[in-house]
Amino acid sequence: MLDDSDFFRAILADPEADGPRLIYSDWLEENGDPDRAEAIRLYVALRPVGPYEVMGVMVLDFRGRAIRDRLDAIQAKHARRWARALPKLRRYNEWDDCHGGLFDRIIINDLEAFLAQSRAILDAQPVSGFQYRCHGLDQAADLRKILGAPGMDRLGGFRMRRDPVGPDVARAIAGATHLANLRSLHLEEMGLGDEGAAILAGAGHLAGLEELNLRRNFITAAGVRSLARSPTLGRLRTLRLEDNGLGVQGAAALAEAGFEGLRSLNLRSCRIGPGGAASFGSWARLRGLRRLDLYNNRIGPAGVAALADAGLGELAWLDLSRNPVGTKGARALARPGRLGGLRALHLWGGDVGPMGGQALAAAEFVGLLAELDLGSNAIGDKGVRALAGRLGRIEFLRLNGNAVGDEGARALAEAGPFPGLVELNLGGNEIGEVGARALVESGSFPDLLSLDLSGNEIGDGGARAIAGSAAFPRLRVLHLDTNGIGDQGARALAGSEHLASLELLRLGRNPIGAGAAHALADPKHLPGLKKIHLQGNDFRTPIRKRLWRRFGKRGVTL
Predict the structure, then answer these.
(1) Is 236 domain-assigned?
(2) Angle ∠(436,437,438) on CA atoms, nearest 5
(3) Angle at 544 between CA 543 and CA 545, to 5 degrees
(4) DSSP string of 93-118, one letter each residue
(5) Among candidate residues 243, 269, 255, the one with its CA nearest the CA of residue 190
(6) Which of 502, 510, 505, 552 is nearest to 535 (CA)?
(7) Engineered SS bond to 449: which of 52, 137, 152, 422, CB 3.0-4.6 Å?
(8) 3-class DSSP state for residue 495?
């Protein structure tokens, strides 16, 4: 008869695969643990969503946040019960927090105790992550002991982070030839440098690797060249090199890579610059890429043009945020016959401007996009008007910080309906009550789950329009910070019969008084509300207590 360990061995053998986890979740549900089954399924669902970055902070889109919130709630309720079934660790070693219904990471505070118990640990859970806190005089020797512990030969994945051992960590892994089953290797912020990258590139027993994460390791062009010329890394499908100083020569070195099976490449903040971007045209062996992250690399119009001409016909997800793309770069992306497979495009802070917005509107791929982030591009009302009629399949649309006024809001509303749109971000614009009413009265957003109108000028009238309309029957998140909303607007929102699904309401930096705060604290109002943000309002203690009583201290931001 099957037990947990049978499933753990399958998960441990291929920790990045979804199949073994989903099979285990089915078994759990059939054997009386539906909560843990759901946690595993949510974790699997969360992985392809992926984060994006805004001002240096990693965040999830609405879909990811909703999944994460549900997963966190299940784990907060049940993780302690699940942990009771784990073997008790000796001498201050600890199981890390629960991740997707499983305890796949361990904190080592006593090395000898871990070595004595390692096989039991690996039999109990599919552990692949190790945090080492008990450094001796020879960290490399300690790491070799961890890698050589009984049971480690079964590992399909190994991950360590923020433990700057330097090139010695690569030497330890290269010397652990029994780790031939590794499919994923994550070594973030370990101080590897070019020497460490070269050592890993020459480790023959890593020929089965499909995922390699070397984020923030002081790797330069020399290290990338070693990886690119490696005779053993040809099976890589995912390569993460973000936050390394690759520079011009590093980008050019990737043209030599034999990574013909590579599907995801992360080069964010790698200092590629215009010169490195010019090498995109020679990436012939990387034409199978489906996901490419080039965030914050000083890539200008010429580099964008080289990328568009590189023949990346299978590319589905592209991030060029925080690059000086400009109008010319937008035109290059939009040229016919280029990037026809794109389904997600992130150009936040790209200085595209109104003409660039209009150029993108004419691109062949725009009508097929599910995600479009044009935040902080000053495309204005003209850019929005041009784009709005082409976004029939859009699911996530971010137009924050674009000098969009009532005219642009009306143009977007009139271009609908947008039946698949679940997240709309129009924050930091110049939309007033008229624009807010146009969005509400159009009925163009029936499936919207998250609406961000923060930093606009909708006032009490706009708030009343939202509160009094059935236009957003599924809305869960509403951002209305800094909109000049007073007591009338806040009371209208609190008493709305149409916002029953709302879970998060942000009303910070609005002149809201005690009466409206009392209404918001009343549990009869907005029955689904779990969190409220009212920062910038100096409420007296009795009002604070009422809010805390309803939402808890974690559910209120003042």
Answers:
(1) yes
(2) 90
(3) 90
(4) -EE---BTTB--EEEES-HHHHHHHH
(5) 243
(6) 510
(7) 422
(8) coil
Query: Does residue 206 sit in helix, strand or coil?
Result: helix
With respect to residue 198, please indicate whether it lies within any of the assigned structural domains: yes
Q: Within 10 Å of residue 89's Cβ, how many Cβ atoms?
A: 20
CATH of the domain at 445: 3.80.10.10
> Tokens 């490399």 appear where?
140
Q: At what angle do helices 459-467 and 433-442 cross, to 10 degrees?
A: 10
User: Is position 223 within any domain?
Assistant: yes
CA-to-CA distance for 428 and 403, rounded, in angstroms? Answer: 8
Under DSSP, the state recorded for 432 is B
The tokens for 261 are 């099976």
Helix H, strand E, coil C: the string for 147-203 is HCCCCHHHCCEEEEECCCCCHHHHHHHHHCCCCCCCCEEEEECCCCHHHHHHHHHCC
Note whether 198 and 225 are within 8 A (CB): no
CA distance 292 to 497: 44
The closest of 271, 198, 191 to 228, measured between CA atoms, is 198
Partners of 99 in the beta sheet? 102
Q: How high is the mean pLDDT in each 10-residue block of the chain (558 residues)?
A: 69 81 91 92 77 43 74 90 87 86 89 91 86 71 91 88 86 94 93 97 96 96 96 94 95 87 94 89 86 96 93 93 97 93 95 96 94 96 96 95 98 95 96 98 94 97 96 94 96 96 95 93 94 89 92 90
Element (H, E) at 212: strand 211-213
Q: How far apart are CA 244 and CA 250, in angstroms?
A: 10
- The pLDDT value given to residue 558: 87
Opening angle at CA 101, ends 96 and 104, nearest 5: 40
Residue with tokens 């100083």: 245
Checking DSSP bridges between strand 556-557 and strand 531-533, what pairing results, if any? parallel
Q: Amino acid letter at 367?
A: G
Q: What is the C-alpha separation between 89 and 235, in angstroms, rounded?
A: 37
How many domains would you assign to the chain? Answer: 1
225/131 Cα distance (integer angstroms): 29
Token digits for 181?
A: 């089953």
Return the C-alpha torsion angle 230, 235, 240, 245, nearest 10. 20
What range does the domain containing 502 cover? 184-557
The reply to whether 129 falls in a domain is: no
237 dihedral zone (left: phi>0; alpha: psi -120 to 50; beta)? alpha
Q: What's the rounded Cα separation, in Å, for the pair 409 and 433?
A: 11
